[in-house]
Amino acid sequence: MEAILREILAKLTSIENNFLSFQQEVRERFTQIDKRFAQIDERFAQIDERFAQIDERFAQIDQRFENMEARLVALEQKMEETNERISRLEEEMCDVKKRLARVETQLDEVKETVHRLEVQLANDVHTLLQNIYKKIDEKGFEIYALNKRLLRVEASIEQLQSQV
User: Fold this and answer.
1) Which UniProt keywords apply (predicted)?
2) Domains contained in the chain, number
3) CA-CA distance, 25 to 13, in Å (whole number)?
């Protein structure tokens, strides 16, 4: 019984550790996303500076627009990738929540079973002890009666031996 409980505890600890590591990975991913957004903000700031330079340097407008279009395409592609990653993370988080709910349900069932077994075991032990006490009492009276008989027989033997 104790070994089963230890095994269950070890599995629960393992599940908890896996959940904590997953949670840490999610946090790290969000940190990476935040860094990406900071980079995006920096790039937008660069674009704004370039628009100001465009006004000053009208002769270089065509070349700069081409560069900006390339950067915007790359940025949009990165945004799409980021959105896809966020969607996948949300789906995975939903799956993890569902799994956790199932684990919690199973844990509750295990707890109920263990409690029921504990109560049943205590009742069984109590019943066995009561039976043992009854048998000890019965045998105690029988032993007392046998001791009494033995004492009489020994007394009779001694009496006979003294007469001989």
Assistant:
1) Coiled coil
2) 1
3) 18
